[in-house]
């Protein structure tokens, strides 16, 4: 037995001391971008994020809808692994179908499809335009397009066919698959188009919509791959990885992450080694969670793409009470950061750190990044938002969204907790979090706060922030003084109302 001399501390036990703010420290100059995967020191990583926020590998959090929104604003989601391999791969594929500015047609019909059916499918998928192919299949020969502007059910009748109202291929402006987004937009404006079909081998590979033009301008930070498709991550476990990894790779997952409450295990090393032996450097597998330097070193040596830090701090987590394992997030992070930096110095390889769980407000995020984390994984934060998959409901006049832990009875994620079959005991709870609106607004606000903190500390990028941040532990007494001391007249912006 050994007792570590330092007390286990949380992120709220520290404050940042401002550094010199110079003329360079303007919001436009601050870059909060971060590496996501291991790389040689001084070289560019294979994947970066412009917004250092990723969504937790949880049923209540990372759906395809949330993954698309988060990638659009520069972060990344990890589709949860507590589902059948085929379902998870389908989720990944549906995110990868979103190309920044290019979109896969969600509705394809045949020329014989009745307008009533076209209208129903467009409404179901919230789309305004359908592709018409000879077979009615997405990979069928392209015949034309039909949009809500091309017909009216009352005027043309629900049984009239799409072929009679579509805009035929001959009269359409189209583009080849090699077209860039700016060229596509040029064509749209020049020819007054609302939609530009992109064609390869007589098939529609994507559509560029005029109404997405503004969106693309807005999402200039989007996390995209070399083909401008949105990036997405996926959770895996150390049990069925030989089936799950190939299916996720095939579906186009950009990065994988072992989903476990305690990642310091030979099973994690074997999973990472399997991926490296099978795919070399092409497939990135993050590992964790860990709370000390030994565990970091073990997973980094095994080839982990990044290492996730945090045990027991999650908003829905009861692991510390149930099993007595864990460590305050600040202490865990500081220990692992030291090991990460020593590893980089010794081997020339930088293994990014993800701070996972227990970030209760935006200042915790700044604190974790100041301490040396490269990016942050959040569950509760994203669960509160419109884009999360959970139910929104009203309780006592207030809006909430459901949020449940992967260790809860509801989630039954036995693989994450090293249990077999039905879970024998729970390590998480099932509850509600106050609804907080749209992901786009919330992430923008969080970025603004982080930028403002970095400006106060005199840093214009996260590398400098890691190096120059000065932190101070706070006493219990001064900790009490961080909140507003008056009765509020109206809700704050952050309460999501
Ligand atoms: P939070 O952001 O505080 O909601 O924490 C999310 C993290 O909590 C997840 O990324 C995961 O590491 C952990 N988690 C998920 N489920 C449970 C549980 O049921 N105990 N914990």
Automatic annotation (TrEMBL):
Protein name, entry field: Inosine-5-monophosphate dehydrogenase
Biological-process GO terms, alphabetical: GTP biosynthetic process; purine ribonucleoside salvage
Gene3D superfamilies registered for this protein in UniProt: Aldolase class I
Chain positions recorded as K(+) binding sites: 312, 314, 317
UniProt organism field: Streptomyces vietnamensis
Enzyme class, first EC level, given as a word: oxidoreductase
UniProt superkingdom: Bacteria
Documented EC number(s): 1.1.1.205
GO molecular function, one term: IMP dehydrogenase activity
Keywords associated with the record: CBS domain, Metal-binding, NAD, Oxidoreductase, Potassium, Purine salvage
Binding of NAD(+), residues: 259-261, 310-312
Pfam families in alphabetical order: CBS, IMPDH
SMART domains in the cross-refs: IMPDH
